[in-house]
Amino acid sequence: MNTIFVKDIKDYLGQEIHLRGWVRNVRKSGKLMFIIFRDGTGTIQTVVYKPGIGEEKFELSKTLTIESSVEIWGTPKEHPNKPGVYELDVTDLKPVCISPEYPISKKEHGPDFLLSNRHLWIRAPKQWANLKVRHTVYHSISEYLNNNSFTRFDSPILTPNPCEGSTTLFEVEYFDQGSAYLSQSGQLYLEPAIMTLGRVYDFGPVFRAEKSKTRKHLTEFWMMDAEAAFVEHQENMQIQEGLIRYVIRTVLEKCSNELEILERDVEQLKKADAPFKVMTHYEAIELLRSKGCEIEHGEDFGANEEALLTEGSDVALFIEKWPKKIKAFYMKQDPENPDLVLGSDLIAPEGFGEIIGGSQREDDYDVLLARMEEEKLDIQTYEWYLDMRKYGSVPHSGFGIGLERLVQWMTGTKHIREVIPFPRMIYRIYP
Ligand code: 4AD
Ligand code: MG
Q: What would the DSSP string read from start to end of 275-289?
């Protein structure tokens, strides 16, 4: 007999099969027991019929509670009125572990309770769907880059110097070497990597001691940084657009069931797979002011401004050419205006905010050094980074995607904490 996964059930109609998993729900009705069964790959309604299975097994099936683990044997068939929906006639079953009353039920629980029970909450249908979409997004990003001549290069997590400013650093004592910092982005290490591999990316956890209690901030999140030699600002944005549109198409193609469980408006996602818009930071401020925002040129955007900028747009928006003062030291000075840098932020539609930060990098030794001195960076710890502007410097660009921000958009999830397995936030480390 075949031990199979629920996702493969359609290939075994009419044959006896064996499944292993958990009870999502049970319902009794006279001589019938309906067990909603799931195994991680899918969910199926199974039917235990007393005269068919016998008194003893029927009694055993009655001991199954919500979230008990169980092995089930039976014969799958297609639902008579619902094509594509399958049901299993149970011929035998064996409880593996009977659960006491499950803490998470259908009733409304507060976010604090759910987060404290995150280890159990991840079994809920929407949480399961979020994790599956996250998996697809992760793989589609890697797939796109692999197919476009990027090589994976793993940046270190423990680093001697900050990448994104000193205000959000997690500091750790590093033996007798003084302080080390948890990486905020692997970018600085990808820059040497392009000089050997041409185009590279990393993908891993990064850390920011963000004091922000918003629905878009985590203190530990996953970032994909990409970096490419001989790519300048315009092409950098083209690569990002190609990548994001590929992710959208892949999620639509592979995750239709998950998106349905999440009640995601897929029409909106389909519309997002069209040419992105581009606007300079200056134009963005003008637009915001015309919408009644009290914002001055040179200022950064908050969540409200980001939402206003993409209001009414189906596609994502690049904001390019930022004031130097509010962007990181490594961004290349705009040759047309020394107060600006060739950076771009990609803002997702539907209010999901910034999902990518990227830029062309300053490749001129003297300009970069002057900028770093201006920012009072500890030049000694960055000597290795400055070396890249000495030995075969080339124009180059890169960008970093916040994985959770992108998954939030794809799944239409309001709060970022639901799209990462175990969220780390300023007010929570358990479980
Ligand atoms: O815009 P950021 O800070 O850019 C960088 O770190 C660059 N070094 C990347 C690069 O060029 N290789 O961060 C990149 C993205 C943001 O656009 C956002 O999606 C996400 O990382 N992000 C966060 N996601 C969750 N929680 C936070 N606290 C985040 N901070 C940034
Ligand atoms: Mg940013």
A: PPEEEEHHHHHHHHH
What spacing in Å lies between the alpha carbon of 343 and ligand 1's midpoint? 13
- Supply the range of the domain harboring residue 223: 118-419
Query: What is the per-residue pLDDT across 108-133, written as a single tens digit (0 to 9) for each?
Result: 899 999 999 999 999 999 999 999 99
Ligand 2 centre distance from Cα of residue 358 (Å):
8
Residue 204 domain-assigned (yes or no): yes
pLDDT tens, position by position, 131-181: 999 999 999 999 999 999 999 999 999 999 888 988 899 999 999 999 999
Give the mean model confidence (pLDDT) for residues 407-416.
98
The structure's pTM equals 0.97
Structural domain tally of the chain? Answer: 2
Pair (335, 245) in one structural domain: yes
Residue 165 lies in a domain: yes
Task: Based on the fold, state whether residues 91 and 192 are members of the same structural domain.
Answer: no
Between CA 356 and CA 187 the distance in angstroms is 13
What pLDDT does residue 266 have? 98
pLDDT for 281 equals 98
Q: Concatenated DSSP letters for 235-276?
A: HHHHHHHHHHHHHHHHHHHH-HHHHHHTT--HHHHHHHSSPP
Residues at CB less than 6 angstroms from ligand 1: 163-164, 185, 187, 208, 210, 217-218, 221, 223, 225, 354-358, 398-400, 402, 404-405
